[in-house]
Design a protein that fits this description.
InterPro entries: APOBEC/CMP_deaminase_Zn-bd, CMP_dCMP_dom, Cytidine_deaminase-like, dCMP_deaminase, dCMP_deaminase-rel, Deoxycytidylate_deaminase_dom. Keywords: Hydrolase, Metal-binding, Zinc. The structure is a single chain. By secondary structure, this protein is of the alpha+beta class. The chain has one domain: 3-Layer(aba) Sandwich (Cytidine Deaminase, domain 2), CATH 3.40.140.10. The chain is built from seven helices and five strands, in the order H-E-E-H-H-H-H-E-H-E-E-H. A five-stranded mixed beta sheet has the order 2-1-3-4-5. The N and C termini lie far apart (about 35 Å).
Length: about 160
């Protein structure tokens, strides 16, 4: 049996982390890695102490027909990337890599056509993270260089996220 390459190894872990997600639209898992050490993990869920969407069995954004990537102020959840960043020291995140995996919560199928939302992009930039790697298929991924977001300021207004 062939040994799994490192990028897909970390994406496999991010995909395992997303199993803890409580969003009824999309399940995301994120891990932050620096020098081959996992710094932190994060998944989608309501702030500590608040009920999760899957416990309430409804999504306000779904009820209102809000498309993916819009009207986050209506969402109960904290995004996976945000939770991973909150759980790490900034000094540990400088020049780190964030690995991101997503499943459709209704079908549990991998959704590789995602990237961090505009809010998460801002946090990733400020955290000092160097690149984001998004799982597209079991073995394929895309690498996003965070400095490109800084240079292309308009990319912080769009989203294909939650």
């Amino acid at each position: 049996m062939l040994r799994r390459d490192k990028i897909n190894y970390y994406l496999d872990i991010a995909e395992t982390v997303l199993e803890r997600s409580t969003c009824i639209r999309r399940k995301f898992g994120a891990i932050i890695v620096k020098h081959d050490e996992i710094i932190s993990t994060g998944y989608v869920g309501a702030p500590r102490g608040r009920k999760n969407c899957n416990d309430l069995n409804y999504c306000t954004r779904d009820k209102l027909g809000v498309p993916k990537g819009q009207r986050y102020e209506l969402c109960r959840s904290v995004h996976a990337e945000q939770n991973a960043i909150l759980s790490a020291a900034r000094a540990d995140m400088i020049d780190a890599t964030l690995y991101l995996a997503c499943h459709d919560a209704r079908t549990d199928q991998l959704d590789g056509e995602v990237e961090p939302c505009s809010m998460c992009k801002r946090l990733i930039i400020n955290a000092g993270i160097k690149q984001v790697i998004v799982r597209q298929t079991r073995d394929a991924y895309k690498i996003i260089t965070v400095s490109d977001w800084v240079e292309q300021d308009e990319s912080l207004t769009g989203s294909s996220g939650y």
